[in-house]
């Protein structure tokens, strides 16, 4: 195949450029420092504000007893009968309170699902979830109402902190799916009209346990 002189000249310049690395014009643009100011105090308040702004429902609990009471009150208010939970640690935590609504019926009958999470991102009001959790991929997406039980030590400031902590936790065996859930599922694809609950839960609750 014959290459024109003009094309050969361009390719030659490309090869020369690749063989001579050029120093980055902004070497500090992608360093270890964050562009956001980290807030070490008040992460609970920051998360609650941002999460609520995204139509999430936030409930702060100071004890396991208060958590169980708040869950029971929510279930009775909504008249839910079937709530799925596949997380052994949460089932063990709630079992002393004898919740009659847990794991009654199948997935197709559930009114809501209770899961844990990896981390809570205060700056964006997001929840980091992964396929490594006992709830897996299906439950947080398939459920019409998603209830997340988290602990205060899972609060982080920024998404970057979450990525670092996920790498620390899992090392080279990162989960096959890591996702950020930021409020209820929503879309505005159709005529730019916001619709909630199309591709996932229409309501998301976070019960934060200060333990």
How would you describe the overall organization of this protein?
By secondary structure, this protein is α/β, with parallel strands linked by helices. The protein has a single domain, classed as NagB/RpiA/CoA transferase-like (Rossmann fold, 3-Layer(aba) Sandwich), CATH 3.40.50. It is built from six helices and eleven strands. A hairpin with a 4-residue loop joins β4 and β5 (126-130). The mean pLDDT is 85.
Summarize the structure.
With 211 residues, this protein is an alpha/beta fold.
What is the count of structural domains? 1
Give me the strand/helix succession: HHEHEHEEEHEEHEEEE
Total DSSP helices: 6
Q: Might you state the CATH topology name?
A: Rossmann fold
Largest sheet: 5 strands, parallel
Topology:
Layout: H1 5-19, H2 43-53, E1 57-61, H3 64-78, E2 83-85, H4 88-94, E3 112-115, E4 119-121, E5 126-130, H5 139-142, E6 145-151, E7 155-156, H6 159-170, E8 178-181, E9 186-187, E10 195-196, E11 203-209
Parallel strand pairs: 1-11, 2-3, 3-6, 4-7, 6-11
Antiparallel strand pairs: 4-5, 5-8, 9-10
Which keywords apply here?
211 residues; alpha/beta; Rossmann fold; 30% helix; 21% strand
């Amino acid at each position: 195949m014959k290459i024109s002189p003009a094309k050969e000249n361009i390719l030659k310049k490309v090869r020369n450029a690749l063989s001579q690395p050029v120093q980055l014009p902004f070497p500090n643009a992608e360093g270890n420092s964050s562009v956001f100011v980290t807030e070490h105090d008040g992460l609970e308040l920051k998360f609650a504000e941002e999460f609520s702004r995204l139509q999430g429902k936030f409930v702060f609990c100071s004890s396991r007893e208060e958590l169980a009471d708040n869950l029971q009150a929510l279930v009775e208010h909504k008249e839910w009968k079937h709530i799925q939970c596949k997380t052994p640690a949460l089932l063990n935590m709630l079992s002393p309170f004898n919740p009659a609504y847990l794991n009654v019926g199948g997935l197709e009958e559930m009114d809501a699902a209770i899961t844990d999470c990896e981390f809570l991102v205060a700056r964006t009001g997001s929840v980091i979830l992964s396929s490594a959790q006992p709830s897996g991929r299906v439950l947080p997406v398939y459920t019409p109402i998603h209830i997340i039980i988290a602990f205060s030590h899972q609060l982080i400031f920024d998404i970057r902190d979450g990525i670092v902590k996920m790498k620390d936790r899992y090392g080279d065996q990162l989960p096959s799916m890591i996702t950020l859930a930021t409020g209820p599922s929503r879309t505005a694809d159709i005529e730019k009209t916001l619709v909630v609950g199309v591709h996932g839960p229409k309501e998301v609750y976070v019960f934060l346990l200060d333990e």
